[in-house]
């Protein structure tokens, strides 16, 4: 007899990294937490949207650009074998002022910025402190929950500070 257990454990792991160019600018990127644990996921579960808080602190006013590196494709970053997660930056401020983002893939409203695999977002302001909310949305197909044993789903990636290709004006 085969018993189907419809439970999965899920976690997303994030890290904050800086490229050597960003270190030369003397900036530091941080997140309020590096892991999101979805716990046991049952077949009727709705994973919903989760939020992280990202901040970048620089010793001198700097142009700030971000990238998230992780396994992914055009639909998002990988979460387990079949799932995907997507990142969106919202409510960004540089030195207390609301800002827009520039990037090749942005829709009309550049204050809400999706961060797909392989893309860089550049803050349209120069400053010492950037803060933003990172919205994480997970899509997991129903058939991914049809498992026989406990399965751990993971998504991994790193936020990186990168040097903008064109200096921004103040």
TrEMBL record:
Signal peptide span: 1-24
List UniProt keywords, sorted A-Z.
Signal
Whether Signal counts among this entry's keywords is yes
Q: Protein name, please?
A: DUF1120 domain-containing protein
Taxonomic classification:
Bacteria, Pseudomonadati, Pseudomonadota, Gammaproteobacteria, Pseudomonadales
């Amino acid at each position: 007899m085969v018993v189907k257990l419809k439970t999965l454990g899920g976690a997303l792991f994030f890290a904050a990294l800086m490229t050597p160019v960003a270190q030369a600018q003397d900036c530091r990127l941080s997140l309020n937490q590096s892991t999101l644990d979805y716990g046991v996921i049952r077949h009727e579960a709705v994973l919903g949207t989760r939020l992280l808080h990202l901040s970048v602190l620089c010793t001198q006013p700097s142009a700030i650009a971000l990238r998230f590196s992780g396994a992914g494709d055009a639909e998002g970053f990988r979460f387990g074998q079949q799932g995907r997660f997507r990142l969106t930056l919202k409510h960004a401020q540089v030195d207390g002022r609301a800002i827009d983002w520039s990037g090749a893939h942005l829709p009309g409203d550049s204050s809400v910025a999706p961060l797909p695999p392989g893309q860089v977002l550049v803050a349209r302001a120069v400053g010492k402190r950037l803060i933003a909310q990172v919205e994480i949305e997970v899509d997991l197909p129903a058939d991914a929950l049809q498992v026989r044993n406990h399965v751990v789903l993971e998504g991994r990636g790193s936020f990186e500070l990168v040097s903008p290709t064109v200096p921004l004006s103040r």
